[in-house]
Design a protein that fits this description.
Length: about 525
């Protein structure tokens, strides 16, 4: 852009930087490459055709397209007086050609070229553009050695914490619930005056055996819509993001990310779900990079308070074969979640699948509220794609607070492409169905109606140390009969398999268990029954 090309030009604004000059905030859609004075020559960085001209002195500009066509990619050069252009729209331009001069900027001596990678819109000549890339990704910028700076966000605290998507700030030693983590970061690129934003930000939450490394933001690719500015930047009385001639303070909401590099409105749901972490002290480390690879990091401790716990149990019972062909297939199962207390329970329920490789994925995650003694029953179908690895999988339902605060887990294993099972059409997608298709079935613990599924009796009850559970099946069915303690821990599986219609009995030996109240859960087809057992030693 400037010659000689080994000269560096400092940046006055970076790609996706917060801007607010009195109106609504917006993203800076390119980079501002600075010079000490106006009148400096600007040269084309590419071959192409002049596809747009805007007349003006401070706000004159042109675009050079790779092709002379609507929708072609190209480059934008702004704040060049059109009186200095040696070309007209439609003219052929080559790399290194002189294309105009920088305007003399009358405000704060901010002499610069606004430079951007674009796609032209609106026919020929281009009437306007869309920003498609961070220009620093496409050019080879001059190397610099100055790393970004991580500042204290609030007072002497490196980071700020607030209730998710609010301005209700929290004491770092008393965190609970869904929390946003905020970091103040700046980067001066070849200058000591104009603070810009960095290129990439990550953060880590570490404590005990937990080490979560997460991407916050990377500022590249297509410019996000202006409606997402509040997703990236915190701007309130405590963390006041500013981006103008006189103030540069950038507060980033690190937790507003769903795991990818695309900035979108739905990222507002991102949060540090502290209930899913055991109570204790955690080290929060922020690391940031500029486009040249210079990096810096800083840490502070935060204390997570204990989340409430509830007496909730979960049971997964397969209802089909668990051997799938190498081409993929589907198995079915029931999931039953039960609140065994006299007050409502608010918690997470999720299904986690462990691949033969040891990697795992959360198949489904739901926030659940169950009334006193309430139950949710679902009939679910899990499809495994043909491209998934062959071998033995683990499949587990969990209740508690995702990801690490697990009250109870229950599950099974299934196999794909082993034991000679290989026939079938190739399945192209891994997916779960059945949860959202059915309304929530919530009801108190009680025996089912006799005409549907009759739990005849538990005798003796109270018992010491053995008792017999007798039940009647109206039709042949796969049956699951399990015993739990009041904490939701499974202590025994009495039946897990197919049974014919008729009367059946199962014995429960509690010789190795302490006295107390236990719960049974009996499932068959779409029917279920629950009840209490009293062990008196």
């Amino acid at each position: 852009m400037y010659q000689p090309t080994n000269q560096h030009g400092s940046l006055g604004n970076n790609y996706c930087e917060f801007q607010n000059y009195g109106g609504s905030p917006y993203y800076h859609d390119g980079i501002d490459v600075m010079q000490a004075t106006g009148g400096v020559h600007v040269y084309s960085v590419s071959d192409g055709w002049m596809t747009h001209e805007t007349a003006g002195t401070m706000y004159g500009g042109l675009m050079i397209g790779d092709q002379y066509a609507s929708g072609a990619p190209g480059w934008l050069y702004w704040h060049l007086p059109n009186s200095t252009y040696p070309f007209n729209v439609g003219d052929r331009i080559y790399t290194g050609d002189y294309i105009g001069d920088i305007a003399y900027w009358s405000v704060y001596n901010f002499n610069h070229t606004h430079f951007n990678k674009v796609v032209g819109t609106g026919g020929l000549p281009w009437s306007w553009y869309e920003s498609t890339d961070n220009p620093l990704d496409l050019l080879e910028p001059n190397a610099e050695s100055q790393s970004p700076t991580i500042y204290n966000a609030v007072g002497t605290n490196l980071l700020a914490f607030c209730v998710n998507n609010t301005s209700s700030y929290l004491n770092a030693s008393q965190l609970r619930g869904d929390v946003d983590i905020i970091s103040k970061i700046g980067d001066k690129i070849w200058n000591d005056r104009w603070e810009c934003i960095p290129y990439r930000i990550e953060y880590t939450i570490a404590g005990g055996l937990i080490y979560d490394q997460r991407l916050a933001f990377v500022f590249n690719d297509l410019l996000p819509p202006s409606t997402t500015v509040s997703v990236v930047y915190k701007d309130d009385a405590t963390c006041n993001t500013e981006g103008n001639y006189t103030a540069r303070n950038f507060y980033f909401i690190l937790t507003n990310n769903d795991g990818d590099s695309t900035i979108e409105t739905s990222d507002n749901a991102g949060t540090w779900h502290t209930a899913g972490y055991p109570a204790g002290t955690y080290s929060i480390t922020v690391q940031t990079w500029d486009r040249g690879g210079n990096t810096t990091q800083a840490s502070m401790n935060a204390i997570v308070l204990a989340a409430p716990t509830y007496n909730v149990i979960i049971d997964l019972t397969p209802t089909s074969s668990l051997q799938l062909p190498a081409t993929g297939g589907t198995f079915t199962y029931t999931v039953n979640i039960q609140n065994n207390q006299s007050s409502s329970a608010n918690f997470d329920g999720w299904i986690q699948m462990i691949y033969p490789t040891g990697d795992s994925t959360v198949v489904i995650l739901r926030s659940i509220i169950l009334p006193p003694n309430g139950t949710i029953l679902r009939n679910l179908s899990q499809t495994i794609s043909g491209s998934a690895p062959n071998g033995t999988y683990g499949y587990y339902g969990k209740v508690g607070y995702q990801p690490y605060n697990v009250w109870m887990s229950d599950g099974f294993t299934f196999t794909k492409g082993v034991d000679g099972v290989s026939i079938g059409l190739r399945v192209g997608e891994t997916s779960l169905s059945g949860w959202d298709e059915e309304p929530a079935a919530t009801f108190p613990i009680a025996p089912a109606e006799p005409e549907e599924f009759d739990l005849v009796k538990v005798y003796p009850n109270p018992f010491n140390p053995t008792t017999t559970l007798s039940y009647i099946l109206p039709a042949a069915s796969r049956v699951s009969l399990k015993i739990y303690d009041l904490s939701g821990r499974k202590v025994a599986t009495l039946v897990d398999g197919w049974r014919e219609a008729g009367t059946h009995q199962a014995s429960f030996d509690a010789s190795d268990l302490p006295s107390g109240i236990y719960l049974y859960r009996l499932q068959a087809a779409n029917l279920n029954a629950s009840g209490k057992l009293a062990l008196v030693q």
